[in-house]
Amino acid sequence: MVFTANYRSAAEALGNSSAQSAAAPGVLEGLDRAVDLAAMVPELPAGLSSWIVGQLAPIEKALDLLTGDAGAVAQWADGCQRVADGLTSHADSMEAAGNGAQWDGKAGDGFRAHVTAEKAAATAAAGVWRSLAATALSCGGAVGEIRQRVEMVGTSLVSSLVASAQSVAPHATDPIRWAQMSTQFLASAEPAVQGAVTEVQGLVQAAAARGAQATQEFRRAANSFNRAAALLGGSPGAMTLAGNKAPMTPPDGRESLDDVLKNNQVKEDEVIEWSPGFPLNLFTDAKKITATEGRMLDKLGAFQLKDLKDIHDQAFDKADEVFPSTPDAGQNDDHNDAYRHALWSAKLAKRFGPDWAEDYTTAHERLPENPAVREAMDLHNNGVGIQVVRDNPNASDEEIAEKIKEAVENGDTVVVNKQGNLEWSDRVPRGETGHPSNEELPGKDPGEPDKSAKS
């Protein structure tokens, strides 16, 4: 039996999770509109056509990256809307049942309170589904609009380059004059190409940021559905009202945990005792690290090494503040551990560059006898932190820390459950994590790091 209080709690769990996205279906068509910039380049002498086509490669790659299926997005949003309409209809029937109740006293009051609470839960759930529809249309529309802007940048660049090339093409048969004119052409064309490519890179980053925002909105909705379903006796991931499951489950988009485990294993490395060079070694004890880690540290200067240590200490302190660990967990395999690794990696990425941070954090995990589950957890969570910086290169330290906190709460990171297996961090209550077995898995050789740290 589902009690009235459960429906009230479910309505509260759902009530604040609606995303605030404005639908923009008018530009969905930009997602899959056919664009062929190279076909716009006419035949020109002296290799001018092939040179222009070659400059368009980054823009055409961006267009391919931003291509989507406008029909599928619209269909998915329509499905969400139909679910919302069904829930609204159910809420209306609850209201009618309450208004039509013919008995008084405690039984009548209890029935009316129950249908009022169930109506509230259904109405709140309908709001979340409508919000998901709006988010899908808004994100698809935003990316479609950005893709159209990339197309405009590419078309404008083609027009400019072709016009310039056509002005110098008549001189291609005069070697002396051609040498002068082609030099002038390149002097004006190359900055134009670079400007266009830079603009397109910014547009692609904007599209990635909008996609990341939509993902967070979807996951917040999924979390609220899971909480409401648990309150109403349903299975996580599907809202249950009056004994009926919604015909769609909230989108998740996360890879399987088996893939997380298998794809985050690295080959063991030699362990060495490392200390910095003279005179820093006079003030620092040697520590055991992987040989690859040591070679990377050897390339850092004194101030870089100090920043590295400060980042390590700050990550531990902040993790203890935001996600305090229990004595049983001991700062391992729990939400504290997930947050600490993600924040540590993010801070490394911000200070030394994402590529260097990825190489360093990978080298750090190549210790022999590292349990497979723990290794996968750490590498995955490191990647989450680095990606936060890639997506938000201008974010402040405070903003990064908040985004990492949201990543743990929304289930972007992984922890170890009571059974010793990987689980998404939003699916294991804090304080109820476990520890993995000592089982190891073979890992891939990441190769020798070749990225330099930012000075």
Describe the structure in your own words.
- By secondary structure, this protein is mainly alpha-helical.
- It contains 13 helices and six strands.
- It has helices at 4-15, 48-55, 57-65, 70-99, 105-168, 175-231, 257-263, 291-298, 302-322, 335-352, 354-364, 372-391, 397-410, and strands at residues 240-241, 244-245, 271-274, 287-290, 414-416, 422-424.
- A two-stranded antiparallel ribbon has the order 1-2.
- α4 runs antiparallel to α5 (105-168), α10 (335-352) packs across α11 (354-364) and α12 packs across α13 (397-410).
- The chain is flat, with a radius of gyration of 28 Å.
- The termini are far apart.
- The model is unreliable at 19-25 and 235-251 (pLDDT under 50).
What radius of gyration results from the CA coordinates?
Answer: 28 Å
Question: Topology as H/E string?
Answer: HHHHHHEEHEEHHHHHHEE
Give the helix level as a range of percent: 55-70%
The major sheet is characterized as: 2 strands, antiparallel
Number of helices: 13
How do the helices and strands line up, and which of them pair or pack?
Layout: H1 4-15, H2 48-55, H3 57-65, H4 70-99, H5 105-168, H6 175-231, E1 240-241, E2 244-245, H7 257-263, E3 271-274, E4 287-290, H8 291-298, H9 302-322, H10 335-352, H11 354-364, H12 372-391, H13 397-410, E5 414-416, E6 422-424
Antiparallel strand pairs: 1-2, 3-4, 5-6
Q: Which features characterize this protein?
A:
4% strand, two-stranded antiparallel sheet, flat, mainly alpha, 455 residues, 13 helices
How do you describe this structure in short?
The chain is mainly alpha-helical. It is built from 13 helices and six strands.
